[in-house]
Design a protein that fits this description.
Length: 397
Amino acid sequence: MDGPLKHIRVLDLTIARAGPMAVRLLADWGADVIKIEPPPRKDAQGSSVTGGRRGPDEQNLHRNKRSLAIDLKTWEGKSLFHKLAADADVVVENFRSDVKYRLGVDYETLKAINGKIIYASISGFGQDGPYSKRPGVDQIIQGMSGLMSVTGEPGQGPMRVGVAISDTSAGMFLGQGILLALLHRERTGEGQWVHTSLLESMMSKLDFQGARYTMSGEVPDQQGNDHPTQVPMGTFTAKDGHVNIAAFGAQMWQRFCDALNAQALFDHPDYASVGARTRHREQIKADMNLLTQQFSVTELVNRLNDAGVPCGPINTIADGFEDEQVKHLAMAVNAPHPQMGDLGLVRSPINLSSFPHPSQLDHGAPDPGADSRSVLQSLGISDEEIQQLEQQGIIGQ
């Protein structure tokens, strides 16, 4: 697959979601990614987190990769992996912090084999510290980071974000870290260990809500569908559904009132300034809802956007993918699979002028071990040796 990373070989030891997210960034842009996984068992149904390999989650996470099934718990399997690492650019893993040492695939071991290796890790809580040996999953991190305390309606208790936000954030940040390390190696010839954690990524994602505490000691609370600081900005009721409207600031507020012929609302003394509108947050929302309920979703979206006031519908996932702008952006793309045919998956959101998105992805996620023979043959291992390794259960296909 052509792309800016086509000269990069990646060994992917990741499981679940956060690590595969990072590797997918590399695979989508042309890296030769070899997913290293245990030989499949006949009774295996795939990861309990992401489902079976032929399900939508794993197909979306592991597309554009090759699969080599090795039992790393055996001396022979570990030796095969070390042979691959000697010629690899990047190794990515998201084991619990002590597992990589037990398997002999840790950074120090691989650095001794390949001094230029970039070793990338994701963990739940970090590579050291009092929680480093704890198992970490997305919902636990959402709660511990404080994110759930600012999500949901006031007075109704903490609320989980509807996507695996700490997993996907950690994957994005690790992918960025790998690219930074590749740039550094290009200049210096030096490899390094890049790592992040679900907890670090989620604390960073708190962004201005976090900075409100670190700078001033303010502890943000739940605002539901309203913006925590900009007023009015939130979800409003239409005749036939709901919309999001951002009418904060002097110009936006006037445009909103003009677009909906709401002169009385604009002239209301309680809403005469930004500060006044903020002080009367609940009152202005109630008055705006009385107004927006007179219009359909389509009328509000058209009128307000034409006036330069951001407004959008509250879509289902299906509505989102069927939206005309999303279709124009071609966010859903096909990936061929040898057994399942063309699969509809979600493309990378990054756009590069020198590498336009292809009309389809290179291929869907391979079954575990589907490429074992071809990968090992590229290492110079004979068919007889491969057959013997298969019979011993050290590799699978």
